[in-house]
Specification:
Length: 145
């Protein structure tokens, strides 16, 4: 969705928008690790369509594009207000407490770690792999109360 929203020039497209209502019968369903995935049947019906799907799957993002799309996904899956509220209610200094939070948001522990670091709700000392509730507390600048 991030690729579509951020990098496709919709003014040049001659078909329905991504979020317009579509008839269910135009989709085929395939299994994936995330569950059932809808694929437009016309793409599967021709060699050209299957080649388009193959190219989409084989395409690698440029580093800037990958960062943009990852931030887009993080904003949707882990909204700031929800992450802050949930994170402040747990002890963030133990990995075992972070895994259930990652599961709650449906993301990997790595994605959660990055998001928490963006909000200064986690700091991981790379040398010791020690977790701190913020960068300031890792540097000894924590609160006195």
């Amino acid at each position: 969705m991030g690729h579509w929203d951020l990098f496709v020039d919709k003014s040049k497209l001659d078909h329905a928008d991504l979020f317009e209502a579509a008839e269910p019968r135009i989709f085929a369903y395939r299994s994936s690790t995330g569950g059932q995935v809808q694929i437009i049947k016309t793409l599967l019906a021709s060699d050209e369509g299957r080649e388009i799907l193959r190219q989409i799957n084989a395409r690698a993002d440029a580093p800037d594009e990958a960062r943009s799309v990852n931030r887009y996904a993080a904003a949707i899956l882990m909204p700031r207000a929800l992450v802050v509220e949930e994170a402040r209610n747990i002890d963030r200094t133990h990995w075992r407490n972070l895994y259930p939070l990652a599961d709650r948001f449906g993301v990997t522990i790595s994605a959660l770690r990055v998001r928490l670091e963006q909000f200064n709700l986690l700091y991981v000392d790379q040398k010791t792999n020690t977790l701190y509730p913020s960068r300031e507390e890792a540097q000894g600048q924590g609160r006195l109360f």
